[in-house]
Write a structure and sequence with these properties.
By secondary structure, the protein is mainly beta. The protein contains 6 helices and 78 strands. It is flat and about 160 Å long.
Length: 1051
């Protein structure tokens, strides 16, 4: 039956692993258990009297549980805080048994980390059937260790930071959180308060009120009930309240208002009506104009303030503005009638009042502000706005008149009288203000077009326009001239066309009249030819003139010759030349003249025609000359144009340079591609997949800071040809010597397998000979055991590795060689022992004192190791080895010179011990030496790395500001005794005057671990080092602008 119950509890516990731990603030289930000593433990009973509790759920096999247990945090909590808390530790894995608490003897299940009982001063219980079998389930334990603190009000809080200080913060600070409230009531509905008095809690506190506020106190609140939840920095929270604030839920307020504004400027037609609510009913009104009701009327424009007071004498004040429109005004612009045109008008611009406006000149209202088509006269205009406010204005419109035009009497043309004279000065308007302009339809005017008198030479209609330059009025009249002349007979033939097929044309002149004279002329040309027939080459209007020699009348006939000698348009566009980007060139002549009226012909460089090629687009893949001939088949004209194709496929030179290494000293370097082709036509681009380019990726010398493969691409932008070259950059890291060897009797072939890119090798073969080759071959002269060592070096340091080699001709089981690799850094576990066995009968078996059973064991810490090697026939070899480790890197001493006021004259000098020299330094300033100078006031840190790259951080080192560097002006004596110190020591300081003195103690890492103040001129300060770890400490005394430091060794 017990087994059934146990399995059921285990099933419940395992299934619960799918859930999370109890949420913070959850009720803590009570439990009663028996500890491993047979004593009973009840949670709630242990918490009686307002105590808290600390619960540790663990498993004996759990590594993190052991680490936490070994920190003695709960032991210290029980020791120091047991008066206010109770600690209990419960093993929750049912598969283990109680002996697992004491060590591996008799332990079942998954085992144990060690003795859990030793040094424990609080109850420990082994949970299982019949002893708290449901406790872990009730506390939702899903991993180990699960740590809770239980507040005095029986709520659970899971511990995250497993330090003593965190437990202290919860128990002493968080669990003492308390708040009380002071209430101020709210008679007006907005002047209430709840002011909190909060004590306890850890760190900064957060507040969440029932009304949503997050401030500590509630100020200016209405009547109501309020509660608050206070949460500290640990997440611990408590709720307080409720507190009742008496009063209305809102101050008296004006909730509605109706405002009527003044319609016309200067009137008293405004009105205000208000509605009031909230506060305590029973309202009174006090207006700025003396009224005491909620309604005002017959108001002029202005500000009106009202104070409303409720029955609790709480008030609300509000001001209302009664507005009025601005004074209605208007600007009137009159435009006079001109030139008897009935084109006068009045334009009105209204402003003020309330738009829109209407306008009236006596014929009814209109929305248009302009009255047009007005004659000279007097007009009254009225403007009215939207509120029916109006104004009126009387205006006068003036006018101008047209001039009088008398062009003259009509007279005919005869061949003896080729011109007629007209004089308009008689009867027309005259004066300097008038301009006269003559024009004609079909006629010809001789003389000044702008005078009063002209001559005319052809029949037609002649028009005189007179314009008054003062008022710009104008008027026109006309006179007709007839032609009564008789002309001789004339005929000209030969109208036609000239082009590239027919380049000239014959023109013929004919007449049947007698007593005549003839000749050819050309319009817009100086040609005069007295031949009857003429041959012409160009287009134009050719006139055959026949003159009657009796009446002097001349007849003319015109022959028109058109010309089409327009040559075709040929436009050749070459897409590109042949280069690394383009294997083919397109010659595009598609913008040339084309179509059925044009003939296309391509020719080679020698002039031969390319048969069958009629396209205007030509593609070529080699250098060449081509000529395009296009003929206009209509006019026979031909245009030719030549194009040349150039080929350029020359690749640039890309040279990434010689190989370089980064190192611990050379953090950055410039790659050098300057052997590559150079010039303005070249583009450069470096790229890398596994490196890093800081800058200059488009130059020949980029700056890099990471090992990797770098590729240089060089491109000629003129022909798009490009080339690539690559370089591999390696990074020298801290060297780690390793080697292997193959043995052929007494000849050993060594292979360097080191890490870190060595630059030198120094082999010692153990027989008095050496080699500086990387992979040497060495022949030993006789049997024996030899220690072979390889020492390698680079800029990051030196490292050495040794192996023992046994040479023998015997077939007996033997250890032919072994390699012992020491621990690299103090406290590390990276030691290694590697064995090489010969002889005997395979297979070999290995049994180490650690329990390992292989020829190679690694991850070793400092210590002694032994192995038994046995072959298949039972022959055995026993061998012991020792793994050592370097001493810890320590700050041997430090010297700080503080800076003088207003300057940067401080310095820090440190001396390092332990590890393996040489040391490297990485200060937070970027400095890399043991001494840094020119320091201003501040805090400084340094990381120190030894030859094995083991590192240790030191600091902070404080550089302070002093008024003088002569500390003797203040300090007459500064001693620390005893030194070294074991438990108790005394600091003695004698000052030249009484001072406020700061006494500080720093550990070797620069961490401040103790600080105090004393006042006087003779100070003896006692210190206890009982709880301090052995090591180097620094006592710093500061006062009066001076500082002195002493090293104190604690044993």
């Amino acid at each position: 039956m017990k087994k059934i119950i146990f399995n059921l509890i285990l099933l419940i516990f395992v299934s619960n692993h799918l859930a999370a731990q109890l949420p913070d603030g959850s009720p803590a289930p009570d439990f009663a258990i028996t500890d491993i000593n047979g004593n009973g433990y009840s949670l709630y009973a242990a918490m009686s009297g307002g105590k808290s509790a600390c619960i540790d759920f663990f498993a004996t096999w759990c590594g993190p549980c052991w680490s936490f247990h070994s920190s003695h945090v709960l032991r210290d909590v029980q020791t120091n805080l047991g008066y206010t808390t109770s600690v209990v530790m419960m093993e929750a894995d049912f598969a283990t048994n109680t002996p697992c608490f004491y060590g591996p003897t008799g332990c079942t299940g998954r085992g144990t980390q060690g003795n859990w009982v030793s040094g424990v001063n609080y109850p420990q219980a082994d949970l299982g059937p019949g002893n708290g079998e449901t406790v872990a389930y009730e506390y939702n334990v899903t991993y180990y260790p699960t740590l809770y603190v239980i507040s005095p009000d029986f709520r659970t809080w899971e511990i995250g930071d497993r330090s003593y200080q965190n437990y202290y913060n919860w128990i002493i600070n968080s669990f003492t959180l308390n708040a009380t409230g002071s209430v101020t009531h709210s008679p007006c509905g907005d002047d209430g308060k709840v002011v909190l008095n909060v004590t306890g809690g850890f760190g900064s506190l957060k507040y969440k009120w029932s009304n949503g506020a997050v401030t500590k106190d509630l100020i200016n609140i209405p009547g109501g009930t309020y509660a608050v939840t206070v949460t500290d920095l640990n997440g611990y929270f408590e709720s307080y309240g409720p507190w009742t604030v008496n009063g209305p839920n809102k101050r008296v307020d004006i909730v509605s208002q109706s405002i009527t504004h003044v319609k016309c400027f200067g009137e008293g037609t405004g009105k205000i009506v208000i509605g009031v609510n909230y506060g305590t009913p029973g309202y009174t009104y006090n207006w700025s104009n003396g009224n005491n009701t909620n309604s005002l009327s017959n108001l002029f424009a202005g500000n009106y303030s009202v104070t409303v007071t409720d029955a609790s004498s709480c008030t609300v004040v509000k001001t209302y503005i009664i507005t009025e429109p601005s004074l209605l005004t208007a600007k009137f612009s009159t435009f006079n009638e001109t030139c008897d045109g009935q084109n006068g008008y009045i334009a009105t611009t209204a402003s003020g009042g309330v738009p829109p406006y209407s306008y009236d000149r006596g014929n009814g209202k209109q929305s248009n502000a302009v009255f047009s088509k007005l004659k000279q006269g007097t007009y009254t205009v009225t403007v009215t706005d939207k509120n029916n406010c109006s104004l009126s204005q009387t205006l006068y419109i003036n006018g101008t008149h047209k001039p009088v035009v008398k062009p003259g009497v009509s007279t005919p043309l005869i061949c003896g009288r080729d011109t007629i004279f007209f004089d308009a000065s008689i009867g027309s308007s005259s004066g300097n203000e008038f301009i006269y302009t003559w024009t004609t339809r079909n006629g010809a005017i001789i003389g000044d077009f702008n005078s009063t008198a002209i001559k005319v030479a052809k029949p037609g209609t002649y028009i005189l326009k007179i314009e008054n330059t003062v008022d710009h009025c104008e008027n026109s009249d006309s006179v007709i001239v007839k032609d009564l002349r008789k002309y001789p007979d004339v005929l000209a033939t030969g109208d036609g066309h000239v082009n590239c097929y027919e380049p000239d044309k014959l023109l013929e002149g004919k007449t049947n009249s007698l007593a005549i004279k003839y000749y050819w002329t050309k319009l817009n040309d100086t040609l005069i030819d007295t031949s009857k027939n003429i041959k012409v080459l160009h287009q134009g209007s050719y006139v055959f003139n026949v003159k009657d020699t009796i009446n002097q009348c001349v007849s003319k006939d015109t022959v028109v010759v058109t010309e089409n000698k327009v040559y075709p348009k040929v436009i050749l566009n070459k897409s590109n030349d042949i280069n690394c980007k383009y294997d083919e060139v397109t010659i595009d002549a598609s913008q040339s003249d084309q179509g059925p009226d044009f003939n296309v012909e391509w020719t080679l460089e020698d002039g031969s025609i390319i048969a069958g090629l009629k396209d205007l687009t030509l593609k070529l893949k080699e250098a060449a000359f081509r000529t395009l001939n296009i003929q206009n088949k209509i006019n026979g004209c031909t245009t030719s144009k030549e194009v040349e194709i150039i080929e350029d496929r020359i690749h640039p030179l890309a040279e990434a340079g010689s190989s370089k290494d980064l190192s611990c000293i050379t953090k950055t370097l410039n790659l050098d591609g300057t052997v590559s082709s150079q010039g303005s036509q070249y583009n450069y681009f470096w790229k890398t997949i596994n490196g890093n380019i800081l800058n200059g990726a488009n130059t020949l010398k980029p700056l890099i800071n990471q090992a990797g493969n770098y590729i240089l691409n060089v491109k000629n932008t003129e022909n798009d040809c490009e080339s690539q070259d690559s370089i591999k950059v390696q990074e020298q890291t801290q060297p780690r010597a390793q080697f292997t060897f193959n043995k052929n009797n007494f000849e050993l072939n060594f292979t360097d397998a080191s890490k870190g890119i060595a630059t030198s090798w120094n082999w010692s073969f153990g027989d008095g000979t050496n080699s500086v080759e990387q992979h040497p071959i060495h022949l030993y002269s006789k049997e024996g055991e030899y220690e072979v060592c390889l020492e390698i070096a680079n800029e990051c340091g030196i490292n050495k590795s040794c192996q023992n080699v046994v040479l023998t001709n015997s077939a007996v089981l033997s250890l032919s060689s072994w390699e012992v690799r020491q621990v690299s850094c103090n406290g590390y576990q990276d030691g290694q022992i590697k064995l090489n066995v010969e002889g005997g009968t395979k297979p070999y078996s290995y049994l180490w004192n650690t329990g390992a059973n292989t020829a190679l064991i690694s991850n070793l810490k400092k210590g002694n190791y032994s192995v038994t090697i046995q072959d298949a026939l039972g022959s055995q070899i026993n061998k012991g080895f020792s793994i050592d480790e370097p001493s810890a890197i320590l700050l041997a001493n430090q010297k700080i010179n503080h800076t003088i006021s207003g300057s940067a004259t401080g310095s820090i000098e440190i001396n390092i011990a332990g590890g393996y020299a040489p040391y490297r330094y990485e200060w937070n300033t970027g400095a890399t030496t043991s001494t840094i100078q020119d320091l201003a006031v501040g805090t400084y840190h340094v990381k120190v790395l030894d030859a094995n790259s083991c590192e240790k951080n030191f600091g902070p080192f404080e550089v302070n500001e002093v008024t003088s560097t002569k500390s003797a002006e203040l300090f007459s004596k500064f001693d620390i005794k005893p030194n070294p110190v074991n438990q108790n020591g005394i600091i003695s300081v004698h000052l030249n005057s009484k001072q406020d003195l700061k006494i500080k103690l720093y550990n070797a890492n620069g961490r401040l671990i103790h600080s105090d103040h004393k006042y006087g001129d003779v100070i003896h300060y006692s210190m206890s080092f009982e709880n301090y770890e052995p090591g180097i400490y620094f006592v710093v005394i500061q006062g009066g602008g001076y500082q002195m430091t002493r090293k104190w060794v604690v044993q």
